[in-house]
Amino acid sequence: MEQTGRVYKNGEPKTLNRERKKSVRRNSKVAKENLPGPRQRNPNDPKRKKQPLQTTGNIPEHFPKRKRSRLVAKEELYSMSNEPHGHCLIINNFNFETRTSLGNRRGTDKDKDELIKVFNKMHFEVEVQDDLQASDMQRFIKQFAEKDHTQMDAFVCCVLSHGEKGTVLGVDGKQVAIRDLTQPFAECRTLAGKPKIFFIQACQGNVFQEAVCMADGQEDGTKEGTDEKDAQTATDQSIPKEADFLIGMSTVEDYRSFRHAEDGSIYIQELCKQLVSGSTRNEDILLILTNVNRIVSSKDLKGYKQMPEIRYTLTKKLVLPMK
Question: Of 46, 140, 174, 316, whose CA is between 20 and 30 Å from 11?
Fold first, then answer.
């Protein structure tokens, strides 16, 4: 006979059999325990016993992925922990008229001053040598290669001169192969595994690089109408392939590079600007030099173009810190 009268909130009649009520509770409890994933705690559930908190030091491989990624990132960077970070040799050849028929390199002192300013900010010990003959260039290179660089992180050499394919010129007009500038440092034990950086502002041939027309909608470079050439003829030399070298050339082989008679060379001025801005943002040297390539190559130089070149055997990322 159907029972009527008072009922509970769940809609069950007051006269529900006790055994049935117990069975419902048991089944409900089992079903809840078998639910996957987290769930909202029911106030009627029995309280769990609290476990004592553990320190992260007692948990093996705490955040293992983050730990490993940090170690890898550190290993991929050249260490720049010493101060000064290294020696910076600047060879600035201006006066060619005294010993040769070549013109003086007007504007080169502007490049020299900017390089001094930048590498001082980068914690390098800067030394400048002006108007060196070819034999003196090789002598100073050898002296720096024989220094003890144990407490240094890197070495930088900037050469500002006339040049030919694969070479730079002393103020006596004699050639020094770029290989002869870099090779002594490949044999320097205290620079082994450390970056050896060369920036060469010099022509690498006697050809003006023609512009190539771009498709509609692409931008042309800005015009630079007062640049003077920096050029000679050609002779073949090679670049060493030893590890941890970076050579930034103002132009690709066979072509001339441009230098303003008052404002300095297109390449060195843009290089200094990008070194300051890029290093402030902790950009690596290859990204910085790629930006230099893009900006220099976009310029219109009396109807001609200049394309810098990066040659490197770096094995890690190189970030040069700024003061």
Answer: 46
